[in-house]
Amino acid sequence: MDDVLIMRPGFHTEPFVFDCTKAEQKPKEAENDKSDGGGSQEKGSDQILTLGLSASGRYAALTDDNKRLILFRTQPSWQCISTRWVVRRCTSLVFSQAEDKLFVADKSGDVYSFSLLEPQKPGELKLGHLSMLLGVTLSPDDKYIITADRDEKIRVSLCKSPYNIQAFCLGHTEFVSALCVPSGHPEWLLSGSGDSTVKLWHYESGRRLQSMDLQQHGFSKSSDTDTEKPLRFAVSRIISSPDGRHVAVQCERFPSIQMFSVEEGSDGRLTPTETLALPQNPWDMTFDRQGRLWVLLENKDTNVLLYTHKEECWQSEPESPDLQRVSETLHTQWELFKASIGVESRFHHLYKVNFDNMASYLQKKKERLQQQNQQGGKKRAVRQSNGAAKKSKMENESGEVSQKCSTES
User: Fold this and answer.
1) Where are the compositionally biased (Polar residues) regions (predicted)?
2) 312: left (phi over 0), alpha (psi -120 to 50) or beta
3) Domain total in the chain
4) Residue 385: per-residue pLDDT
5) Would residue 288 count as lying in a domain?
6) Sign of torsion, CA 40 43 47 53?
7) Interior CA angle at 232 toward 249 and 350, to 5°?
8) pLDDT given for residue 219 in this prediction
9) Is 271 a domain residue?
């Protein structure tokens, strides 16, 4: 998608549309400057890769395939205040709680910090992984920066001095695709992975508190028709309600959302409550300030759903005026979303590929031994044949000598 449509559910304001194809282009002298660490110079598209809002909603930012970082101010009205460039294509971004910095993670494994107070200032390299980064978030007090990569690692570093690593949260068996510090529990970290699990951590110590296999909670049937392949899916989104009592988990290629509850006085455990069945695969979801759950679907007619927690369960609110307003706006702007319908999963190429080298090795060894035995049998036959011929020759020669001696005598 080349355009971004920004709406604030619950606020009666006009939607804001920004067209990346008309955004500022990188100066030619900057394109020819190779002092940025050797980033790729290939021309990208205007496709939006990441999008985020600050905690108060005062700022918004996006990055696109052309390596642009575009910053917006939302109050009193939406305004693009800067366009900066990143070294490599980005995978995740997060605003600091103080709303003075923006942290951006990229495919090479680096995290850069960009100033919000000086919106034209270039980014500063903060830390790096040896693997592609898929997620970045901050602790609520901005003390720690938490990063997740393709090699199953979650690293907790001090934000002011990221070379000081506080802890690692280790336990996933595939890439880590989603991070969330839930509201009301600033010491917790929720992580989702390509191993189909959600894990709960005490991130400052790296201690795992809980692990939940989503295949046991409504995600046991693949939407693919090929049932012979092993089921693999990634957690694409984890969000927490403003009051910290509810957590929603979205997985790729599944038309459902798994809900969890966090009870008062919880000792560090989430409880699965219900699975919300959806008519289409969800694109994204969010909680608004009233604690309502909004779900964006890849369907023009039923493009958004609204859920409210009532009587200990989540109930759909099809008659909500807010829902009608948002749905109608999405319907009129649906051309912005058409290119994103049915797009291939962004996680499919991140899975480990297993090779059964032992079976191939044993088969080749068997063939090699058979070949050696065949060659050995041929050599023995040749030796036996040569031996028999030599013996026959010796016997013939011995007979001739005996006959000659007899004649002479």
Assistant:
1) 399-409
2) left
3) 1
4) 74
5) yes
6) positive
7) 90
8) 62
9) yes
Instruction: Compute the radius of gyration of the chain from its Cα atoms.
Output: 32
- DSSP assignment of 176-218 equals EEEEE--TT-TTEEEEEETTSEEEEEETTTTEEEEEEEGGGTT
Strands (E), 86-234: 90-95, 101-106, 110-115, 124-128, 133-138, 144-149, 154-158, 165-169, 176-180, 188-193, 197-202, 207-213
Contacts of 306 (CB under 8 A, 6+ apart): 9, 292, 293, 294, 295, 316, 317, 318, 320, 322, 323
For residue 25, name the pLDDT band (cuts at 50, 70, 90): confident
Q: What is the pLDDT of residues 103-146, one digit of tens each?
A: 999 999 999 999 999 999 999 999 999 999 999 999 999 999 99
Q: When comparing pLDDT for 253 and 102, which is higher? A: 102
The CATH number given to whatever domain includes residue 333 is 2.130.10.10
Residue 309, H or E segment: strand 304-310
Question: Is 383 a domain residue?
Answer: no
Enclosing domain of residue 294:
183-222+230-352
Report the distance separating Cα 262 and Cα 257, nearest Å: 16
Distance separating alpha carbons of residues 27 and 34, to the nearest angstrom: 13
* Residue type at position 361: Y
At residue 37, the pLDDT reads 47
Spell out the residues 6+ positions from residue 201 whose beta carbon is closer than 8 angstroms to its own: 154, 169, 188, 189, 190, 191, 207, 208, 209
Rounded to 5°, angle at Cα 160 from 158 and 165: 25
For the ranges 253-257, 272-276, 382-386, which has the lowest average pLDDT?
Answer: 382-386
Q: How confident is the model at residue 263 (pLDDT cuts 50, 70, 90)?
A: confident
Using one digit for the tens of pLDDT, what is the confidence trace for 68-92? 999 999 988 899 999 999 999 999 9
Calculate the average pLDDT of the chain: 85
